[in-house]
Design brief:
The chain is an alpha/beta fold. It has a single domain (about 5-210), classed as Rossmann fold (3-Layer(aba) Sandwich). About 35% of the residues lie in helices and about 30% in strands. The chain has seven helices and nine strands; from the N terminus they run αααβαβαββαβββαββ. The chain has helices at about 5-15, 15-20, 30-40, 55-65, 75-85, 120-135, 170-180; strands at about 45-50, 70-75, 90-95, 105-110, 135-145, 155, 160-165, 180-195, 195-210. Helix 4 (about 55-65) links the parallel strand 1 and strand 2 (about 70-75). The radius of gyration is 16 Å and the shape is globular.
């Protein structure tokens, strides 16, 4: 089974339900506020990877209406919702594993909860690709579910749909960022209950070196 295709199919099917459940991102508001403060450029070009229904973009634009946001997602229905929720942004159907093909560099990159659907090798390549599209001095916001990678496996949601989820420890991600010339500025964790299971999310904000 193509696990990425399966995940896209599930998110495409559940796009409106996902929007209803996750459009409010206030739990992470302090981390988004920190990101917005760190991006000093006026009219900054911001790249949101795996944008879903544009929930993060909506928060960022409410805080920084000057941001010029380009968002991508593999699920067409998610992109349709993102365009509706953020008519001032540009949203494209695109594979997050192929971001080097966008032929543009950015003042900041945001990636909320895409890594659970990446294998370890895909995650390693992805961080390298982010470094490629991020301008020197650019800010990178990354969030994912934190746990030992050995606990990765299939998880069933409330609708009964099953997807393969990969977990990562912040130390592994910090090492990847450092290897690619990106300095970690801040790490925060958020604990909550997902489908009756305790979950810890980790948010890492970093800055690409100025060469």
């Amino acid at each position: 089974m193509d696990e990425n295709a399966n995940a896209v199919s599930v998110f495409n099917k559940l796009a409106e339900l996902y929007q209803e459940k996750f459009m409010n991102v206030d739990l992470y508001g302090d981390t988004f506020d920190n990101f917005c403060e760190l991006v000093k450029e006026k009219n900054a070009a911001v790249f949101e990877i795996a944008c879903g229904p544009g929930n993060i973009s909506r928060y960022l634009l409410n805080k920084r209406p000057d941001f010029k946001i380009t968002g991508i997602d593999m699920a067409p229905k998610m992109i349709a919702l993102a365009r509706k929720n953020n008519p001032e942004g540009e949203f494209l159907v695109m594979d997050a594993r192929k971001i080097k093909g966008i032929n543009k560099d950015f003042d900041a990159v945001v990636c909320g909860f895409c890594l659970p659907y990446f294998t370890k090798s895909e995650t390693t390549q992805f961080i390298s690709d982010v470094a490629y599209v991020l301008k020197p001095g650019g800010i990178f916001y990354l969030s994912t579910i934190e746990d030992d990678h050995s606990k990765s496996g299939y998880r069933k949601g409330s609708t009964g749909d099953e997807v393969l989820m990969h977990y990562y420890e912040a130390s592994f991600l910090n090492d990847l960022l450092n290897t690619n010339g990106i300095d970690v500025l801040d790490v925060k964790r958020k604990d909550y209950i997902l489908n009756e299971t305790p979950v810890t999310d980790v948010v890492i904000i970093s800055r690409k070196k100025n060469n």
